[in-house]
Each structure stands twice: as structure tokens, then as C-alpha cells.
Amino acid sequence: MKQMKFMAVAIAAVLFAGMLVKPASAEMVYGVLDMNKVLQTADAAKSLYADLEAKRKEFQTNIAKEETALRATEQEIIKSKEKLSKEDFEKKRKEFEAKVTAAQKNVQDKKQSLDKAFADAMGKLRMEILKAAADVAKAKNYNAVFNQEAMVLADQKMDITKEVIEGVNKNVKKIDVDWKK
Q1: For position 179, what pLDDT does the model report?
Q2: Domain residue limits, the chain
Q3: What pLDDT score was predicted for residue 158?
Q4: Do 31 and 147 contact (CB within 8 A), yes or no?
């Protein structure tokens, strides 16, 4: 949500600067951009979503392996209950609980890291979309570009979504994601 507000402010600032140069009598000309469509259909966005899905599958596979190992350890502890003294059993049980807690924390940390890396990459993509929108607006001498969600009615001739997607596809093939954060 913060990024969307930032994008709106950034676009407004760039286009407002252009408005200052024009005479006061000039007609207001604006474009409309379907940001959601760009975020779904641009090549870099598709690549980013594919990378995220691959990383999530890898993440789920690792979690499943950890869960299997923990279940096996739990079964070993349960089977050895009669063979161990009460103190040794309690010690093993507490060690196992500590492993489970550590595994849960590890999963949470990895998930947060994955979410942050994806959010950072989406921020980079949004900046590239802003650049492409600014280029289209400049080429068409638009005073402003509004997100389609902010518009109730607009002439289809003002829709610059296709041109922005083409600009993003031309300038950005892939957004690199730092999954190690």
C-alpha cells in the first residue's frame, strides 16, 4: 500500500513539474494506466512471479524434509521411553521441543525473508513501470497519468497501459531478486 502511494506521489511529482512549464491557458491532458494489468502481464512481472513460485516450492520441500526428520526423532524418543530413565527421557523430550521451536522460528524467518525479497523486487518493478509511464506521458504531452482504479470514467483513448507494458518489456526483461536477505 505504501508503494502504491509512493508511486502515485512520484508520478504526480514528475507530471506536476511538467505542468509548471506549460502556460496556464493550456488544456489539461491526461492518461490512464491500469497498474494491476501491467503488474500481471509485463514480462518482468511474469518472470518475478515464476521465480517466487519456484522459491516457494523449494521452501515447502525443505519444510517437509524438516517435518519428516522431526517426526522420526519424535518416534525414536517415544520408542526409547521404556529403555530410558525418567531424567534421560525428560532431557531428550526437552531437546526435541527445543528443536521443534528452532525449526518453527527458522520457518518464520525464511518466510519473512522470502516476503521481503519479493516485496523489494516488486518495488523495483514498480519503479520501472513509473519510468515507462513517465516516458509515455512525455511522448504524448500528458500533464498527468492516473491509475485506472482512481478513475470513474475515462475515454479509452487516454489508456496508456499497452504502451507502458511495451515500454517495460523493452527496457526490463527480468528483475533480480536477492533471496538471501
Answers
A1: 78
A2: 2-171
A3: 83
A4: no
Kindly provide the residue ranges of all beta strands, DSSP E only, lying in 38-158, ordered along the sequence: 144-147
| This prediction's pTM | 0.72
Instruction: Quickly tell me which residue has 518416534 as its cell.
Output: 75
Which amino acid does the sequence have at 55?
K
> How much is the pLDDT for 181?
61
Asked if the 2-171 domain carries CATH number 3.30.910.20, the reply is: yes
3-state SS record for the chain: CHHHHHHHHHHHHHHHHHHHHCCCCCCCCEEEECHHHHHHHCHHHHHHHHHHHHHHHHHHHHHHHHHHHHHHHHHHHHHCCCCCCHHHHHHHHHHHHHHHHHHHHHHHHHHHHHHHHHHHHHHHHHHHHHHHHHHHHHHCCCCEEEEHHHCCCCCHHHECHHHHHHHHHHHCCCCCCCCCC
- Regions of the chain with pLDDT less than 50: 15-17, 19-22, 24-25
